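User: My instructor asked us to take a sequence, write out its structure as tokens, and then describe one feature of it. I'm not sure where to start. Here is the sequence I was given:
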Amino acid sequence: MKTGRNALVAAVCALAGLVAAPARAADVPDDIEALLRAAAEDDARMAAAKAPPMKGAGGGLRGFAQLEAARTIDRPTHGSKMMGRIELENSGRLAPNLRWKLGARADYDAVFDVTDRYPGAVKRDQRFNLYLRENYLDIGAGDWEFRLGRQHVVWGEMVGLFFADVVSARDMREFILPEFNLLRIPQWAVRAEYFKGDFHGELLWIPFPTYDEIGKPGAEFFPVQPSLGHDVVYRDAHRPARKPANGNYGLRAGWLKNGWDISGFHYRSTDAAPTFYREVGPGVLIYQPRHDRISQFGGTLGKDLGLFVLKAEAVYTRGRGLTVLRLADADGLARQNTLDWALGMNFSSPTETRLNLQLFQSVITSQRDPDLIQDKVESGYSVLIHGKLAPRWEAEVLWVASLNRNDWMLRPKVHWGFEKNWRMVVGVDVFHGPALGYFGRYDSRDRVYTELRYSF
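Assistant: Let's start with the prediction itself. The structure tokens for your sequence are:
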């Protein structure tokens, strides 16, 4: 049993009552894109005052320094993060139509030096990381813009989960808990964008893809696979050779008509997310993460409807393998075509309270293999409430749950902007569900955490 879970949930409900001021019709800004992005959880988290940039090359050095600590509260309780993080970026112009951006981040997690709880492979993988962030050149040529280099390509942005955001690789070593701007990994890409009136076209080529980071077995949020009564062994991930033949390409078109922001895309890729292939040995299951070749077709729409902002995303995926529980299967996978969609409504009020509601679904459109873990139709919903408690205090509660089974995630937190450019966050992450559930697999990973950030 989980110690104190009922009391924790009761406290969260009380917090939600404080935050959830009645949402009334309000004047909504004309800039739909800005409001839609404000609805995204990571943008809400990043709301912090910026100091004047430091003098230097280009537009000035910007970034943040952050301390993060977490403690897993399920028995045995233990410290699970003691991280220092710093991110720096700079940008400028070389010519009127030639811009550049450089960025990097370094993370050091001391929890791996003060405890021997984690295997050596986890320690080597997560103790220290140095990342190139966005590093690119922008070239303007009339109605065209070209971006060459390491860059974020965000084609979709719902609250708390990913749907049409198919291009980004992600650092999943803390599941989907970090801010999305930290979780996304830029891709080395060549992107051409065309702007004409209400039309926006985009061509994308990624010759050497970047893939999701999932960590090593024994880490807090490693995506463990079904054991089916056997011992389980994980082989090192197999990634395709770095050659253009394994590259990704896509195209996207968008229109803004009568207040409707509509887009459609096609993306052919070596999947950034791994598929776990399985072998059966004497009393043991051997899993290896690999990356399948898939095709995806999708679209997004957004519309300011006065009382609320409507947003929707849908993606149809062909070629991805899904895990089956049938031991006789040669690789433990069934190739299934899926349609994933999400519908969201964002309400804002003059009291600076925001309510976001989402309904989402994953549908297997091909003949469903009877031994799949998931049902043919998997449905869920999410609720986000964010509001001010005082001039420098904000509170937020995010609830995401399945409608097929008792599988959910609860994330309450409080923000304190105690000084200019400084922010502190205190929160709790709670998971519940069956062992093979999307959230239930982390049922023993409930944690409390705090973050202290200085932005400059």
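For the description part of your assignment, you could build on this observation: DSSP finds six helices and 25 strands in the chain. Try explaining in your own words what that tells you about the chain.
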